[in-house]
Amino acid sequence: MHVEQYRVESADLPSGLKSRSDKPDLVLIFASPDIISRPGFFESVTATYPHSALAGCSTAGEIYHTHVCDHGLVICEISFVSSRCAVVSEAINRPTECYQAGVRLARKMELPGLKGVIVFGPGVDVNGSAIVDGMGSILGAIPVSGGLAGDGGLWRQTYTLTAEGIASAAICAIGLYGEALSIEYGSFGGWEPFGPLRKITRHEANILYELDNRPALDLYQQYLGEYAEQLPVSGLYFPMEMVRLPNKQAGIIRTIADVDEDSGSLILAGDMEPDSYMRLMHTSTDGLINGAEAAASQIGYSEKNRLALVVSCFGRKVLMGDEVEEEIEVVRMRLGLSTTTTGFYSYGEICPAPDSPRCRFHNQTMTLTVITEGLS
Predict the structure, then answer these.
(1) How far apart are CA 337 and CA 348, in angstroms?
(2) What are the extents of the domains in the chain?
């Protein structure tokens, strides 16, 4: 497997689009929303890569080696030796149809020989958990990773790049095939719990109404103190962890996307599971950097030529500010300098959980998909 990566500034488009490889099999494209939605952008990309499978999305920050960029374009060209890939897409007509869209998308994939799937979806007006569950109902134990598109923190309109063009309401998935392929995964948050575990006693999809039979918003505000006046913005700093059992040490992070004063509920950036518990979380910049290192440690160091798709949450980028590149640097060092890192900051991460092959939808998490082909 051969990987080439380059970055293009907005002012240098479209002339800056120049293939670094001879007919790459797959081209990943991560761009700011103003670039990917620009008239003629898709035509410029397809003219540059007429023989390549294309996939990508808009971002809340592009990852280029160890740099985090904004308002630009990162292109990663992948050429396989004996493996192959296929890209499919599916429209999402409305948020309530995300599960069925995930089912339809997975059914378009050729299952024999499928080693893994990378998916990019819209980041607004979408239910990421439902997409993941719908795909999982068809793919079974085949791992899925990727993330939801961003729009630089505006939360207005995101885009995915499909074979048919640029779309604001479509999922794009890459199927990876070949016995020579090895795909490894890592995910970790770096958050610490505070306060007790409380049982979810009333919820509907991603709306949390009650914890321990008390209004969820009341409890959340009680623990936040002065930060409660800054909701829902302060929800980025104090997400919640969903835990299946009272004695389990780690669960799935859920960001507080919004609050509903009238119903006393919290709107989370992902669905909840029956018979689960929730607890509040907090962290520091060091905690998030350590979490990124822990995610990379689940895969480990290698001197092989590998590709690491890095999808980290936009909330982490906000919290770390000017120090955000440190989490990418620690990932690169832990994986090894022969590993090419590419990716983006997202509105939701998709990756198998460390303790299970089951694909999960995450918030506020560093996720990694590391691809190796043969002995390269």
Answers:
(1) 27
(2) 2-188+287-373, 192-282
